[in-house]
Amino acid sequence: MPVPPPSDPLRFAYWVPNVSGGLVTSTVEQRTDWGYDCNRELAVLAENNGFDYALTQVRYMAGYGAEYQHESTSFSLALLLATQRLKIIAAVHPGLWHPGVLAKLGATADHLSNGRFAVNVVSGWFKGEFTALGEPWLEHDERYRRAEEFITALRTIWTEDHVELAGDFYRVRDFSLKPKPLNTPERPHPEIFQGGNSTAARAMAGRVSDWYFSNGKDFDGVTEQINDVRAFPDRAGRTPPKFGLNGLQAGQSTADGKGMWQDSSFEDLVQYNDGFRTGLIGTPEQIAERIVAYKRLGVDLFLLGFLHYHEEVEYFGNRVLPLVRELEAREPVSGPVTTRV
Fold first, then answer.
1. The dihedral formed by the CA atoms of 59, 61, 63 and 66, expressed in degrees to the nearest 10
2. Distance (Å, rounded) from C-alpha 296 to C-alpha 334?
3. Which residues have C-beta within 8 Å of that of residue 142, sequence separation ≥ 6?
4. Contact 223, 295 (CB under 8 A)
5. Mean pLDDT of 9-25
6. Any idea what DSSP says for residue 21?
7. Residue 22 — very low, low, confident or very high, per pLDDT cuts 50/70/90?
8. What is the DSSP letter of 299?
9. pTM (2 decimals)?
10. How many CA atoms lie within 13 A of 132 on its CB side?
């Protein structure tokens, strides 16, 4: 069923290149460096060019060329301390973190950054990282069940005292976190993101997450996902999550064909996580029009990747984002969806 367009301005995030190999599979020489100095400059550039969020990637071992990786939570904190307004989303793996330990780190990072810390809970897609560290590799839907329990524990610890939880994966006994993260009018605790295209991912997002990241999808795919995700909160009695487009983790092991990379073509995989499926390629005018068309379908945030980050982040902020804001200003506050560009 169609959804009314969001009334809030679209938000924009970028993938932090904190791993080697870049975001685009290409033989074109890249000028983006995965080190801290380059990323510090990029974070300042991004917040000065209209970006709201940055998402640090989580890698513990090499995968598809990512031979070197900086750890996501510590890298996120460094970027938070280098910026003034940019929110940083640290990707984390349940199974390699305990929610109470992450809650403590997140509360500290939130205070140090005046409420700009967020997390992206990655249910797990790279088996080798878990087995190399001696951790069990769970079946696909079990990984999402663990992630849902992780998010439930994390949110409860961030918002309540004397927490008691007895789950299948995590147990908490009379635990009170002090200080807790900042509670602001914008958010009662650090925002919790998650990704994934599978049925298990969609159900989890509807039940417990603040944001759902879709891996790259066209108009029809986005509409189908949004409608699916928003059906779960109706049954759970909670507000639906906000919707971000591009996305995260793999779901190749799903049985119903809805997981990440299940139906990808070679062209889709030039930018991992099916980033090119959104079709944001063309003139600034064409890209802005397509972005706003996605907003009409219910997209709240775009997660963007680039080849040459410094030049292209600045170009996007100067040439594309002003056009997006002009088009948004002309949009009706509510009404039926008009779907195609």
1. 70
2. 9
3. none
4. no
5. 88
6. T
7. confident
8. -
9. 0.88
10. 8
